[in-house]
């Protein structure tokens, strides 16, 4: 709904102003019917001349009826009034919620979609779609090296990318990390390639496991093909990534039972860029890994975190202690409501 209003406002800039203006007229008539034009003018602070134009329009739409006693809403008018009341309330509540979330997490911008991605595949698809729209809103014209993490959330985003994003832009995509023990489709390499194909951009792969021993890491990091990709990654001026629930990420990495127990004992709640952190954002364990490090995020001017689901609420809030202030977050009501619990909007 917000997206539809946003698109319409680009063609009709004063659309929302007209909506709220006419809603106010309908509201006063609903509360004070039957009401004459003079009384309506006094309550709304709108001139009688302007009101005549507005009420004539509303009558022609079948929303108002006039009698000797004054104006009243028709049955259709009452139905439209309550529907419009709901639309505007949802829009304003969501705006307030997004502002409250950005303030709570100390982030530059937050976008919240309806639903909970833990409970609905449709919500996950909507999260990906909204992330693409935010990506398009955030980036100016120009050349972009986009570092991309893996995961189902990032794949959902890739599925909504099109060549329209490349109008006045050129993209080079690069995975932000090596591979995990995941399905191939949600590996960073695969997601990065999908985004490149969808936008008509180019992709540079990184065919290296994410979690290597220090010895193996040192052996491979100077390989020419790997070094080329790593250098490109370090030049990224845009970053797309998610924030993981610590326990879920432990399972994805197939960690040994003892190792998982140690992280649980250290109260790890979230994971990003191979770092596990507690609810205060303190890093309790760091994996040896190929790819961007958590410290690199602050140097990237356009960074968008996409993470939803009530199960990720603690991880998102914890990560906010580490996240640079210029971070844009795209999330859902499942996570946002948990984070904002107890805050009046």
Explain this structure.
The protein has 345 residues and is of the alpha/beta class. It has two domains: 2-90, Orthogonal Bundle (Arc Repressor Mutant, subunit A); 106-339, 3-Layer(aba) Sandwich (Rossmann fold), CATH 3.40.50.1360. The protein is built from 14 helices and 13 strands. The protein has helices at 2-11, 15-32, 37-44, 48-60, 75-105, 121-138, 152-158, 188-199, 214-220, 224-234, 246-252, 257-265, 313-319, 333-339; strands spanning 64-67, 70-73, 109-113, 142-148, 169-175, 202-203, 238-241, 244-245, 270-272, 275-277, 283-286, 302-306, 328-332. The protein is elongated.
Helix content: 40-55%
CATH architecture of the largest domain: 3-Layer(aba) Sandwich
Distance between the termini: 20 Å
- Name of the CATH first level of the largest domain: Alpha Beta
Strand order of the largest sheet: 3-13-12-7-4-5-6
Mean pLDDT: 88
Largest sheet: 7 strands, parallel
The total count of helices amounts to: 14
User: Which strand-content bin applies to the residues?
Assistant: 15-25%
Molecular shape: elongated
Order of helices and strands: HHHHEEHEHEHEHEHHEEHHEEEEHEH
Structural class: alpha/beta
Reported by name, the CATH topology of the largest domain is Rossmann fold
Number of strands: 13
Which radius of gyration do the C-alpha atoms yield? 25 Å
Which parts are unreliable, with pLDDT below 50 for 5 consecutive residues or more?
none
- Can you tell me the number of structural domains? 2
Topology at a glance:
Blueprint: H1 2-11, H2 15-32, H3 37-44, H4 48-60, E1 64-67, E2 70-73, H5 75-105, E3 109-113, H6 121-138, E4 142-148, H7 152-158, E5 169-175, H8 188-199, E6 202-203, H9 214-220, H10 224-234, E7 238-241, E8 244-245, H11 246-252, H12 257-265, E9 270-272, E10 275-277, E11 283-286, E12 302-306, H13 313-319, E13 328-332, H14 333-339
Parallel strand pairs: 3-13, 4-5, 4-7, 5-6, 7-12, 12-13
Antiparallel strand pairs: 1-2, 8-9, 9-10, 10-11
Helix pairs in contact: 2-5, 6-7, 7-8, 13-14
């Amino acid at each position: 709904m917000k997206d539809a209003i946003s698109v319409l406002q680009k063609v009709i800039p004063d659309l929302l102003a007209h909506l709220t203006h006419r809603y106010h007229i309908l509201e006063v008539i609903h509360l004070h019917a039957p009401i004459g034009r003079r009384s309506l003018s006094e309550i709304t602070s709108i001139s009688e001349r302007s009101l005549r134009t507005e009420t004539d329009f509303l009558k022609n739409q079948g929303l108002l009826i006039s009698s000797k006693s004054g104006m009243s809403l028709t049955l259709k008018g009452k139905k439209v009034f309550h529907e419009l009341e709901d639309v505007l309330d949802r829009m304003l509540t969501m705006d307030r919620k997004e502002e409250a979330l950005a303030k709570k997490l100390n982030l530059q911008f937050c976008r919240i979609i309806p639903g909970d991605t833990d409970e609905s595949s449709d919500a996950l698809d909507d999260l990906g779609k909204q992330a693409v729209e935010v990506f398009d809103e955030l980036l100016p014209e120009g050349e972009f090296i986009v570092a991309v993490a893996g995961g189902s959330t990032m794949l959902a985003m890739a599925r909504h990318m099109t060549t329209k994003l490349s109008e006045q832009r050129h993209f080079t995509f690069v995975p932000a990390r090596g591979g995990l023990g995941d399905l191939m489709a949600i590996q960073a390499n695969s997601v990065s390639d999908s985004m490149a194909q969808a936008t008509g951009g180019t992709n540079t792969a990184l065919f290296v496991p994410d979690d290597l021993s220090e010895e193996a890491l040192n052996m491979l990091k100077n390989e020419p093909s790997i070094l080329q990709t790593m250098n490109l990654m370090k030049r990224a001026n845009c970053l797309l990534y998610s924030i993981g629930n610590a326990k879920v990420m432990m399972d994805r990495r197939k960690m040994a039972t003892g190792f998982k127990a140690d992280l649980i004992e250290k109260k790890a709640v979230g994971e990003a860029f191979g770092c596990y952190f507690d609810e205060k954002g303190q890093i309790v364990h760091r994996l040896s890994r190929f790819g961007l490090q958590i410290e690199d995020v602050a140097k990237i001017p356009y960074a968008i975190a996409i993470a939803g689901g009530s199960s990720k609420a603690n991880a998102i809030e914890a990560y906010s202690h580490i996240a640079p202030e210029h971070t844009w977050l795209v999330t859902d009501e499942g996570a946002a409501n948990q984070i904002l619990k107890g805050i009046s909007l």
